[in-house]
Amino acid sequence: MEDEQQSSDDSWFEHHRLVADPNQTLIRLDKFLMDRLPNVTRTKLQDGIKQGFVKVNNTEIKPNYRVRPGDEIVVALPEPPRDTEVVPEDIELDIIYEDSDLLVVNKPPGMVVHPAYNNWTGTLVNALAYHFQNLPTMPDNQGRPGLVHRIDKDTSGLLVIAKTERSMTGLARQFYDHSIERSYTALVWGLLENETGTIDVNLGRSLKDRRITTAFPEADHGRGAITHYQVIKPLRYVSLLSCQLETGRTHQIRAHLKYLGHPLFNDAHYGGDRILKGTVFSKYKAFVENCFKMLPRQALHARSLGFVHPISGKRMKFDSDIPQDFQELLSKWESYVTYQTKS
Questions:
Q1: Degrees (nearest 5) of the Cα angle 39, 44, 50?
Q2: What homologous superfamily does CATH list for 181-342?
Q3: Cα–Cα distance, 248 to 112 (Å, whole number)
Q4: What DSSP string runs through 252-270?
Q5: From its phi and psi, is residue 271 left (phi > 0), alpha (psi between -120 and 50) or beta?
Q6: Residues with catalytic roles
Q7: What is the CATH number of domain 95-176?
Q8: Which of 33-47, 117-131, 179-193, 312-326 is predicted least confidently?
Q9: Fold match between 95-176 and 181-342?
Q10: Which CATH superfamily is domain 5-77 in?
Q11: Is the dihedral of CA 142, 184, 163, 165 positive or negative?
Q12: pTM reported for the whole predicted model
């Protein structure tokens, strides 16, 4: 089996190659793969097929394609295959709350949540494996013990971790039902037309760059996604927002705010790492570039998290302060606006 498979845009890595038996009866592709690939749900297989990760006879097909005798099926992903064993690492955790069933941690910016391509060590999961024994995993979540959700590497803030199978099932159900309360603090480019609003636009993997999420306003692609926002403070050329997630799609806030025309400040993947609003004066340009250096990541913090305790049934709510680099950035913008107003 070859180690690597090329696509027109990126290097793709072959994970599975299967050839249907000469006596193979006609069967849907997703069911064919589900019977042969371990720890993969049918929903995940269908999503992978739609995203082009599965080819039959070197051709992209739909999930309802029926496998025929002699068909060659290849599953290729942007990252190489790797053993799912997690190496425990002695990394300090900022634990906000803990009991026998779960814990809530405050993830610093720059920490990857779980091991993946280019980030096999130094992750939150590596730290959890060191500090806690036998954390549970969901059927399609091998190598990610305790996780029921995640936030991006350069996003800071709160995550709930399951310590038992029962708590994982209960928390996962709440995420599935969208009953988890999640609020984020975000700094975006520009002044919003309305102080409050809702972005209800489908999101899915970009058809041009599979590393990012894009909006599909015609609803013919992607999955439903809803973000509520409120302006906390307008700062002339940027705005501080509070965002509440009703759904939890990959890069949801980042993609939705880009769609709205107000990408996150210094979000390199979604166009926020350029000067999008303001003057043409060199002093302003230097000011913004210094702000980029002060916060070399997207300005997004998972501020609060609310859920029902899966065992006790008690309603729980946790909050966290924005990290120091984000606070300093806000102070710098506030000082700039104050100075401009007086001058």
A1: 140
A2: Pseudouridine synthase (3.30.2350.10)
A3: 18
A4: HHHHHHHHHT-PBTT-GGG
A5: left
A6: 152
A7: 3.30.2350.10
A8: 33-47
A9: yes
A10: RNA-binding S4 domain (3.10.290.10)
A11: negative
A12: 0.77
